[in-house]
């Protein structure tokens, strides 16, 4: 892990990270920050550029209130009350360097050669901030890196460094991080660092919320970080201050050969050779010049000596005198440190002394030789203006003796001069009078007292050496303050950023920098095959280029670059970038072992035993780097391991020094800058110092490097120093862990921290104790014992020392939480976990035993101080003993093994096995090297014992069993298998092998006895076999052989000679058995026995010429032939009954195999059983149950190995029956795919005929029977249709559907906008052509005109005569609509799915229901007398035309007829006077004559050039107009209505404005016009005038000649119909009963050859040639045919009408009534029209119709419109709230009085024609209908004349 110094919090908080107390800032101190570049008063460097100059959105500037520079307080400000020496921010050392260079410039002779420095910040001085996105786009950064990439060897790494090893673990190796790190540790530890590249596919997710993530940065000036550079700056500042306060403020750097002398290098080289005196005495100035790079200058030695003498030597003398000057009284100081015998500075916290401007270096070309001393007058003037300075912080006195630097030596441990704490005294305000001289200690001569600007202490000017004559002009510092300059170096706070703002700044900085500083290797247009290179326009920058540029800037004295670094960002505050189980529990990487949140707590990591989280060690820290940002040389806290992972971003270069070279590294860096370490002995703990790797290599320090890229790990090892820098924006995360090999370096680090008084992060002793509490395994004890022993011995020594001091001892086992200060030594900062010294005066302060004397100045260690211990001595010793004993277990076991092997060359096998078992238990926790050899030896011995047991253990069943029939061959095989398989030679070999194995066991003696017995049997067998033939004929010969064989059977050894003797015995026995079997005719041998005897004959070497052997061979050949044929038959896939019977009837003389015979007989019985079952199915007995087709198919599948004719016939029929069942099931479920023109019900009828003839007598078909019942119900349902024809046995619904479709179109609810539509049909009654006679007739009551053909139907006006609607006039459709929904709902399922008649009925019901709803709403609206306007008569006639064409009664109730209600309403609306005169309007064109071109135009023929101009005819009056005069476009196809007709009809003219002028005879004004519209709307009797402005558009002018007002409209109000006073019950819906299923028809069984079924595609059904998959109907690929509709607007869904029943939403429909369109024959203003329904997309039943379809029987007379809404439903709704809302122009009319019922309206007289005679006395007789040729005395309306031909 790496970072840079920052203000830290005390340990005990989650953010604690071990840091030196030297870098901590006091809480109340202000920290100087870099001001903007523009505020720098003088910049003497050649180049300075800060990344802060780049403005970026989202970055919080550093110039806020918390970071502003605080000026020094005035002299009257009291000192700090803390009692500790503190100091306010002093002026920067840069001021001194600026003054040096300014004086050099003023005194130089070459001022004209000065060139002003380039400042890139000028580019961004007034620039706008770079815009940023609040969320970082991860696609703009590198998230992956090329695997196995390395730079070519031809391009060496800078400084010639060697790369550290890179490891590429496999997936298995990568699974366990600790095990893998342990495996590579031996190799990688030699390099200090290494890189680990995860396997491909492992991608750790980046989980940081980039929008909320914000962090603070630290400023880094690159050339201030390098050790030698900072040491040089400190030295030059001290030098300048010294000369300035000595009265020479214009001191400058001398030059040699017009180049400034490097004073720091000069002093360093002089000190290297022993100092000024030694160099001067040995005259080594020429060597000094050569070392500084000067060659060939004769005056060089004198120039160097003079420069040293004038500038450096006085300062050195001052420092020597300051160290030797006594101080009285002594200053209060604490912890005075001495390095190499040199007292150092105090370790109390100091203020960070960050630079506030660009550092100025005196090593520039503008320096000049030493100038003359200043004028005396100038000095006096400055003294007069000077005044004493007083500060708020005092420094302790530091004595620095003369040093002599020779060769690098390891970093020495500082020696601290500790003292007892002084009591705290509240300080008073010190004035000039009470400040004593620090040298003489007197308070006199106050005017001569000089106060130091650093420590605020007083000095007499005459006491100084050399004494001062006057007060210095500016600042003055005492010797300790002057020589401690630079000891407070640290990084300043930067800005606060988000990731996107930091990316924007880094991107801009990189582009600007590398475009202005291209690397030497970058050439325009040159392609570089480097995936890691960056491109900035034409500039290509490789990783090595960035590395070279970084070190160039670090070492450059002329170029200062300031960058930001977001280091040590606490993941406890900002969150880890890796998923955790708390934040992302479902992410698999949250549990990954390589997740940095998990690595510290893995089972092998020792940090898991730390009881609390330590931020930065056990909790990861994150780092956000930018270009050139660096982390300085350091090693990890407590020398632990660290692992660093790069989530994304640019390369990070690492440098590592192995832990073995740590001392060399410290010596080299101390040798490079000894002054820095003199001021800050703990400098390496502060992470603020770099050193060039090349210089380290020159000092014999091994340095290795690596480039870390996105997705890669970098591992650092214990004590290894490492540093590095970033190539650009990147995001890293790091954490620490510790393996067991870390314990020793960790303990060394604790001692080092104690020596340097550095705060440790955790207690090492506490960690060891915690490990013992949680793990006591052998493995743990082995690596823990040494550390535990060291801790115990050290603690015992400490306690011995404490007891010698006489301290009281208290055992305190308090393990609860307590602050670190309560058990941390107040002096050396070490954790006093095991023991601590306390006293009663300091409750919160403890010390270790070594510093007991510094705890309190009031206490006596022997009486008042207490030694508090956590564990007793015996506990610690027992703990050490227990773990030492556990650790010694492996060695004890090894001792037992050595002892066993030393006691005997052949140790017992049992002892070896016991020792192996014990070692295996130990090996579970610790790897025993000897265990593998021992296990191998024991395993080999065990194998030998098992082989020996195969000889010694007898096998069971060596006696010959009794042979049974059918088992002869098997017994023979058993005898062969029972014979021993190990020979006597094997026995001898096994005994010989054991001689070479070093163990002993009882089996060895047993095996030797067995070998001796076997040898004896072998000798006996040889003796028997060597007997002559004569001896073998004796009776006792066979007995001897049998005894020998019996004796050999007890030995498990195969002896060849004994086998030969056994054959003699078997041969004799076999001949006796064959004689008995073959000579007996009653005994038959089966094939198994024959084979057995033949095998025995061959085994015992019986001659093949023996008669018994010949007989056996003949029987074996015959039986084997039969067996082969039988097995071939059984192996055939299909067998016939005839073939099986042939083999079952063989002769008994043939030897048969019993098992084969059994199989033949079993197959024959099974085949006959299958045949019997198939026959019973094809010819069933009466009363037997019928099988299902599936049962037959299952049986045929089981009988597939037999060829049975009956079964095949049953199978063929079963397939047909099964397909019929499948078809029937598809029909019942609604999944049957019908053909294009297929009538399913006809197909089912064909299926029924076929099934009755061929299937029903054999099979049980439940699905088909259900289908047949459904078909019968469908047929019964068809008979219930009103249009069912009994003659043709089919319904005729096409004409009904056609009429309904024509009359119920949703877009046709409004009447036609044509005055000629007056007939009951849907055609206009227009005037006949000229010269022809009209057959139209007219109603005398309503004046409606009818076609002659239409008037023949009934002989009366259908609009007025209610006989057309109450059923008295016969109609073909004399049924009521309300019964149709019940028929629709009661249809069977098959009807709803497949019947075209049902779909027609559904369409009829839905269409008529919608029309019924519209008419019902209209009637409800017009039921109010105020709404019964004559203009609605056209709407009424339109609805009556629809109902007239439908013919059947329409309403939601059987006692209601909307046609009858409309007829009554029509009588009301048509009741008016016989004569009605329209207003007469005569315009000028009416009185004009036709012009020569037959026109009567607007122009009135007064413009000659318009003659024969294109004309257009009016479609209303047939007059011709010039198209130009009326602005009618000639290309338009819209019908033309002239302006005059539009005026008379009170309609606007489409093509222009029309204005009517008064008669010319009245001489009207020019702006006076006639308001025709107002006159027609109001029926005015007089002419109405109006004034209009001049026209601004196309306007026509028409002259009014005459106006005669029409007769006012009078409406004859007919008495409204009365209502019934009582409510009636709801109507009853009569449902037709469903038909019963028809009985099943039984048929006789069909023959074996059945015809193909009507639904099948088979050609034959006897033996199908195609597989079943192709014989069946393919139903999956046939799309379901869409239902044919006559009209495309019909809904596609065919659903049960119950689905369209009203719901809550449909029952609350609202009807909005917009204003009606003006009619052609109206003369006055009209009220709003009734309901206009919009086109309906989905038809639903009206509420009233839905109510009729409810299952409750409803019986009710005709409902009343005017009844109370609480008694009956209004318009089909159940309540007032659910009634439809009638609106007139958006106004609710729901609460208007209901329309009166029309059921009791007076009967209209019959309509008569001209052939009938009017009967007197009939008041209610209707007026006659006049024809065109009639001569009636009654006056007809004027329109009647228009219908006549012009000639008549």
UniProtKB/TrEMBL annotation:
Catalyzed reactions: N(6),N(6),N(6)-trimethyl-L-lysyl(4)-[histone H3] + 3 2-oxoglutarate + 3 O2 = L-lysyl(4)-[histone H3] + 3 formaldehyde + 3 succinate + 3 CO2
SMART domains assigned to the protein according to its UniProt record, in alphabetical order: ARID, BRIGHT, JmjC, JmjN, PHD
Origin superkingdom: Eukaryota
Record region (Disordered): 1-90, 322-431, 956-978, 1620-1848
Annotated keywords: Coiled coil, Iron, Metal-binding, Nucleus, Oxidoreductase, Repeat, Zinc, Zinc-finger
UniProt name for this protein: [histone H3]-trimethyl-L-lysine(4) demethylase
Residue stretches of biased makeup (Low complexity): 25-42
Any one Gene Ontology cellular component term annotated for this protein: nucleus
Molecular function as annotated in GO: DNA binding; histone H3K4me/H3K4me2/H3K4me3 demethylase activity; zinc ion binding
InterPro entries assigned: ARID_dom (IPR001606), ARID_dom_sf (IPR036431), JmjC_dom (IPR003347), JmjN (IPR003349), KDM5_C-hel (IPR048615), Lys_sp_deMease-like_dom (IPR013637), Zinc_finger_PHD-type_CS (IPR019786), Znf_C5HC2 (IPR004198)
Polar residues bias (residue ranges): 1-12, 324-366
Cofactor annotation: Fe(2+)
GO biological process entries: regulation of DNA-templated transcription
